[in-house]
Amino acid sequence: MAFGAEELRVLRRALALALHPSPVSAEDLQDCLRLAESVDEAAREGARLRAFLVADLARYRAALPGTAAGYLLLLEEALGNGYRPNPDDLAALRALRGNPSAATLLDRCRVLAEQDVRARLAGRTVPSSRTRLLALPGGLASDEGVKKPVEKPAAQPQSRPPVKTPRPERPIPTPGEVFPPKRKPAPSPTNPPQQLAAG
Fold this sequence. Notes:
By secondary structure, this protein is mainly α. It has six helices and no strands.
């Protein structure tokens, strides 16, 4: 973003007012507001142009290898505008390694990708599993100024209650044992068998 001579004068005045507050004339106030609006508009326009460039770059990358020359030019322009290469860009550049421009851009993009990875890793906190433990020798408790945990005296062995032996369970009776089958009564010996008369 470039400022003209008049814009630089207003910017200088705004910075002076920020550092050394003093009464502001209405004209200075209007100039500062106009400059702020111009800067905001320029930032919005820059964001629109970057979005267009990234979308154009994706279209050229999707049409590779036929659009290699245009893709490489667009990628170089995007990198100059602060674009960070993504894995698709790295894969496309690896496929175009035979082209000297692609090989140069691949080296540049690898450096940028490694910087991004390092920045992400540096922003992470150490997981709790890697912190030193208080209860172990050499942990935080051994450092100066840190109170050591109070050791509790060993507890006296207590008499354990007697273990109850389980009683053997009674076997479950079968239905035949609970309900015995009914037997037909035997004929009594006092009654003589009846004979049927023939004929």
